[in-house]
């Protein structure tokens, strides 16, 4: 008899705990938002390609689809076009130059896209302005090069981007894992007023992000380490509604296949993170090769009333869906 009572108490406790976990993380009773998701345009308006064929050493400029527009990634015209289309935020890449600046450019070397060899560190910013960033683009295996000669002067410096978009949200990508680049970027950003700094987010390798955060503790950042330090403890205790302090003031890029397994996904999870000034961005696939929601069909996979961020390589297709 005593054993039955003890078992019954344990069973009631277990059921009560289970109900608490379900109710506390359910979106059924959450007030539904009417706001649209935040649209993050990857590299502005860019030429696109089949992401399935990409490896770490792939020259993507040599495998673009037939161009539907004239914009090249990581240029000021492409960023302007993205914002004009309806982007809430634009992502771009930075690489160090020979004269201690940052050029806005994606690849480790200049060989693929441009008419020169080497890296950005082999050239001054003035020299990079003379480089043709459209030189290597082809959609027909080298039969034609539709942007050759049209990319001269289009590679901007980080300073130019910041001055051209003084009131826009920007996501800056440090491409390396060199702590020195984090320190260098901090020197640039510390000159900005607080209201401007609040519109910037930086992501990249663990070492540069840690170095940057040490100099600018209030700036929003993301790296593998910041993601793990937030999500691992959240997976353990998030069912209670508690969000670890390590999640504060960061950005989370969540693969769409993993996100649904997080406590409170999507409405409660997003709300909890927003309370800590943390932005949630959903990406396609495993997040390894910047796959985005690039078609209207892709958007159907988002949760109902989703109000977090959406990563896209085709802001020209995605933004009009919400503008309807």
TrEMBL record:
Coiled coil: none
Top-level division of the source organism's lineage: Bacteria
Gene3D superfamilies: Phosphatidylinositol (PI) phosphodiesterase
UniProt cross-references to InterPro entries, sorted A to Z: GP_PDE_dom (IPR030395), PLC-like_Pdiesterase_TIM-brl (IPR017946)
Membrane spanning residue stretches: none
Ranges where the GP-PDE domain occurs: 37-322
Protein name, as recorded: Glycerophosphodiester phosphodiesterase
Lineage of producing organism: Bacteria, Bacillati, Bacillota, Bacilli, Bacillales
């Amino acid at each position: 008899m005593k054993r039955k009572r003890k078992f019954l108490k344990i069973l009631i406790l277990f059921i009560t705990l289970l109900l608490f976990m379900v109710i506390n993380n359910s979106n059924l009773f959450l007030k539904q938002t009417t706001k649209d998701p935040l649209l993050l345009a990857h590299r502005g308006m860019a030429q696109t390609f089949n992401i399935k064929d990409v490896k770490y050493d792939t020259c993507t400029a040599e495998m673009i689809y037939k161009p539907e527009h004239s914009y090249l990634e990581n240029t000021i015209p492409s960023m302007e076009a993205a914002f004009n289309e309806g982007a809430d935020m634009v992502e771009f890449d930075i690489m160090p130059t020979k004269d201690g600046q940052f050029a806005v450019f994606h690849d480790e070397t200049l060989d693929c896209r441009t008419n020169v060899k080497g890296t950005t560190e082999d050239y001054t910013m003035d020299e990079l302005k003379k480089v043709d960033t459209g030189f290597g683009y082809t959609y027909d295996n080298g039969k034609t090069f539709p942007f050759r000669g049209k990319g001269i002067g289009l590679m901007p410096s980080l300073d130019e981007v910041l001055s051209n978009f003084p009131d826009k949200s920007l996501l800056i990508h440090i491409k390396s894992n060199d702590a020195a680049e984090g320190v260098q970027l901090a020197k640039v950003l510390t000159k900005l007023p607080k209201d401007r700094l609040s519109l910037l987010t930086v992501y990249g390798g663990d070492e540069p992000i840690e170095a940057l955060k040490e100099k600018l503790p209030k700036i929003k950042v993301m790296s593998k380490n910041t993601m793990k330090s937030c999500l691992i403890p959240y997976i353990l205790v998030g069912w209670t509604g508690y969000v670890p302090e390590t999640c504060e003031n960061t950005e989370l890029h969540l693969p769409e296949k993993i996100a649904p397994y997080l406590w409170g996904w999507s409405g409660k999870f997003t709300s909890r993170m927003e309370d800590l000034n943390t932005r949630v961005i959903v990406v396609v696939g495993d997040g390894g090769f910047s796959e985005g929601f690039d078609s209207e069909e892709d958007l159907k996979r988002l949760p109902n009333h989703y109000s977090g961020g959406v990563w896209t390589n085709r802001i020209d297709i995605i933004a009009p869906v919400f503008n309807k």
